[in-house]
Amino acid sequence: MLIPVEASERPQLLTLFGPSYPNLAFVHAVLQGKLPGQAWARFQGQAATACLITTSAPFCFASGDVDEATLGEMLQLLAARPPVKLIYPAAPTAHPRASDAFGAFDAFGAFDAFDAFDHGFAPAKRLQFSHAHPQDGERLLVEIPGPYRLAAIDEALFDAILWKDMVLGIYGSPAHYVRHHFGFALLHEGRVAAEAHGVVGGDLVELGVFTHPDHRRQGLSVLLGAQIARHGARLGLRMVVTCDADKVASIAIATALGLRRDFSYGILDLPR
């Protein structure tokens, strides 16, 4: 049976997440109190054997020995809060509907779907890219084009960012964002033209970028991604990018930043 885990007890759940778990910056950030989120776990004695972590973003994470009953509990907890992207890397399933959908996945592959389909979840595929070392970020060049000005995102600039609602949904508040994470914006005539945000957790920083439609196709996302990588490297952080497998633009950004493709992984997606 899954029981809620108080914030002070959450760091013990880190033992269930190995270094190759996807979106690990998000996992660490929630367990370290750097991102808003919740956690549930199943215990055997004092040791956690399985857990579910939710964030204010769609990303939710399962790990440990997740049997059919435990997954059913997780799906019930998540069913009322779409959209959800449930990540649980494990062995491929024998479920016929899941194996057809997940059959082409490599590396982490699929996970046992059980009755996930009956709860409205559908399989999807994501990719993860990363730098091998923080120093890889230090080598990236950041040259600001003439019409733009680079600015760190602080509380004063927060109200002007393009992704404000989404960023607030992930980070909780401007103060929380500035205290635990970081981001940069390119300003054009006093307005935000493009922005990049880094979720910091453990020794990782996961990149998110957004460019105003009027300023796209100028390489601004790559430029800001390089700035996030360079700043993260100064803090000893290694950069990670994850995206849906069909996000051509995100894959192009990761490639331009010199990130290697680590693996693909299956998720269960519950749309809004």
TrEMBL record:
Signal peptide: none annotated. SUPFAM superfamilies: Acyl-CoA N-acyltransferases (Nat) (SSF55729). GO terms for molecular function: acyltransferase activity, transferring groups other than amino-acyl groups. PROSITE patterns: GNAT. Residues 146-272 form the N-acetyltransferase domain. It comes from the Bacteria. This is N-acetyltransferase domain-containing protein.
